[in-house]
Design goal:
about 0% strand, 16 helices, 2 domains, antiporter activity, about 450 residues, disordered N terminus, mainly alpha
Length: about 450
C-alpha cells in the first residue's frame, strides 16, 4: 500500500472515531437518566419503580418515532454538507425542525389523552395504576422538548458537530441528579410529587436542553442556521422526510417489541431464568451502544461523501467501519466471555444458579458481538445513502423471522430448553450480518445512491 493510501485510510479511521466517541458517550449519558430515576424512585419502594418501568416500553415506542424522523434530517443535511450547499443545509434543517415540532405536539396531546387506557392495556395493577398514569401523562408534556433536542442533536451530527450535543446532555444529566430527589421527595417550600416528580425533573432538564439547542440553531454560529422564512412546509420535503424517517422508526420500534416478546418466552421457565435473561439483556444493551455510535458516525460520513459525489470513498468508509466494528466488538465479546461469571455475580451475588445461567447466556452471545457490530454499521451505510428501507427490512428479518422463531423452536421443541433462547441470539446475529454484508457487496445501494443524488441536485429539496 502506498504512503498516500495509508494516509487516506488513517484519515478515515480518525474521522470515524472522532465522530463516534461523542455519540457513544451521549448515548451512555442518556441511559443515565433512567438509572438516576430508578435509584431515587427505589427509595419510595418497589411499586414506584414498577409504575415507571411499565410505562417505559410505550414511551420508547413513541420516542423511536421521533428518533426515526430526525434521522432523516441527519441523512439529508449530511449530503448537503458534502455538496457544500449552505443554503440547503439551513432549509433542510428548518423544515425538519417545524415538521418534528408539529408531530411532537400531536403526540403530547395524544399521550396525555390515552395514558389511562394504555396503562390498563399493558397490565398495570391497581397498586401502581394511578402512579403509572400520572407518570405517563406528565412525561407526555415533555415530548415537545425531547423531540426538539433530538432534532438539534441529529442536525449537528449531520454536519459532523457531535461534541456540542454531548456537552449539553452531560450538563442536563448532572442537573437531573439534583432535581430528581428535589421533586420526588420535596425540600423546604418545594413540595414532593413522588413518582410524578421524576417526570417533572426530566421535563425541566429536557426543556433546558431543547432551549439551548434551538438557541444555537437560530443563532447560526455552529454550521446550521434555521430561519422562520424556511419553515413554510413544502409537501415534497415532508414526503421525503417520512419516506426516510418512517422505516428508521419502524426499525427501532421493532427492536423494542421483539425484546418484549422474547421476555414472554423466558417467563415460562421461571423467575431464576428471567433474572439470568435480564442480566444478559443489560450486558447486550451496553454492547449495542458502541455499535450504534459507529453506525451513526458511518451514516454521517457516508452521507457527506455521497453529497460530495465521492461514492468510492463512501464505500471505503463502509469497508473500514465493518472491519473496526467486527474486530472491536469481537474483542469486547472475548473479554465478556472470560469475565461472564464475575459480571453476573455483580448483579446477583447470592444466587449460584442465576450466576451460572446468566454467565452461560453471556458466553453464548458474546462471540457474536462482532457480527452485531457489522449489521449496525452496514445499517449506517444504507441510512447514509438514503436507503433506510434496507436497514428496516434487515432488522425485522433478523428479529422476527430468525431470532424469535429459532428461540421458540429450540426452547420448546428440543432438549436445550431455555438455553435454546440463548442460542437464538448468535444465530440471528450471524444470519443478519451475512444478509447485510451480502447485500452491501452487491452494490445495489450505490446504484440507488447515484439516482438519489441526481434527484437531490435537480430538485433542490433532497
Amino acid at each position: 500500500m502506498s504512503n498516500k493510501n495509508q494516509l487516506a485510510e488513517v484519515s478515515l479511521v480518525r474521522s470515524l472515531f472522532t465522530l463516534a466517541w461523542p455519540i457513544i458517550m451521549a448515548n451512555i449519558l442518556q441511559t443515565a437518566y433512567q438509572l438516576i430515576d430508578t435509584f431515587w424512585l427505589g427509595r419510595l419502594g418497589a411499586n414506584a419503580v414498577a409504575a415507571v418501568s411499565i410505562s417505559f416500553p410505550i414511551l420508547f415506542l413513541v420516542l423511536s418515532l421521533g428518533a426515526g424522523l430526525t434521522l432523516a434530517g441527519t441523512v439529508i443535511v449530511s449530503q448537503f454538507k458534502g455538496a457544500n450547499d449552505k443554503k440547503m443545509i439551513d432549509f433542510a434543517a428548518s423544515q425538519t425542525v417545524v415538521i418534528v415540532f408539529l408531530i411532537s405536539i400531536l403526540l403530547a396531546f395524544l399521550g396525555f389523552a390515552v395514558a389511562s387506557p394504555l396503562m390498563n392495556l399493558v397490565g398495570a395493577g391497581p397498586e401502581i395504576l394511578n402512579d403509572s398514569v400520572t407518570y405517563f401523562q406528565v412525561s407526555s408534556f415533555g415530548f415537545v422538548f425531547l423531540f426538539m433536542f433530538f432534532v438539534f442533536q441529529s442536525l449537528m451530527r449531520g454536519i459532523g458537530n457531535v461534541l456540542l450535543p454531548m456537552y449539553i446532555v452531560f450538563g442536563t444529566v448532572l442537573l437531573n441528579l439534583v432535581l430528581d430527589p428535589l421533586f420526588i421527595f420535596g425540600y423546604g417550600s418545594i413540595e414532593g410529587y413522588g413518582v410524578a416528580g421524576a417526570a417533572i425533573a426530566s421535563i425541566i432538564t429536557q426543556g433546558l436542553s431543547a432551549a439551548a439547542g434551538l438557541y444555537i440553531l437560530f443563532r447560526g454560529k455552529q454550521g446550521i442556521k434555521i430561519k422562520v422564512s424556511f419553515m413554510k412546509l413544502e409537501f415534497k420535503w415532508v414526503k421525503r422526510m417520512f419516506e426516510l424517517g418512517i422505516p428508521a422508526s419502524l426499525e427501532q420500534s421493532s427492536r423494542a417489541a421483539a425484546m418484549t416478546v422474547m421476555v414472554m418466552l423466558v417467563t415460562s421457565f421461571g423467575s431464576e431464568i428471567v433474572a439470568a435473561y435480564g442480566i444478559g439483556a443489560r450486558i447486550l444493551s451496553l454492547v449495542i451502544v458502541p455499535s450504534i455510535g459507529m453506525g451513526i458516525a458511518t451514516t454521517t460520513l457516508v452521507g457527506q461523501n455521497i453529497g460530495a459525489g465521492q461514492i468510492k470513498r463512501a464505500e471505503k468508509i463502509g469497508d473500514l467501519s465493518v472491519k473496526i466494528a467486527f474486530f472491536g466488538l469481537t474483542g469486547i465479546g472475548l473479554i465478556l466471555f472470560l469475565f461472564a461469571e464475575t459480571l453476573t455475580a455483580f448483579f446477583v451475588p447470592n444466587d449460584p444458579q442465576v450466576i451460572k445461567d446468566g454467565a452461560k447466556f453471556i458466553r453464548i452471545m458474546s462471540l457474536s458481538f462482532g457480527l452485531l457490530g457489522v449489521q449496525q454499521v452496514l445499517n449506517g451505510v444504507f441510512n447514509g445513502s438514503r436507503f433506510t428501507q434496507a436497514s428496516m427490512l434487515i432488522s425485522i428479518f433478523s428479529l422476527w423471522m430468525v431470532r424469535f422463531p429459532v428461540a421458540f423452536v429450540l426452547s420448546a421443541k428440543t432438549e436445550l430448553s431455555f438455553e435454546g433462547i440463548w442460542w437464538a441470539f448468535p444465530i440471528s446475529n450471524l444470519i443478519a450480518a451475512l444478509v447485510a454484508f451480502t447485500y452491501y457487496k452487491t452494490g445495489y445501494w450505490k446504484i440507488r445512491t447515484f439516482r438519489n443524488r441526481n434527484e437531490l441536485i435537480q430538485s433542490g429539496l433532497g
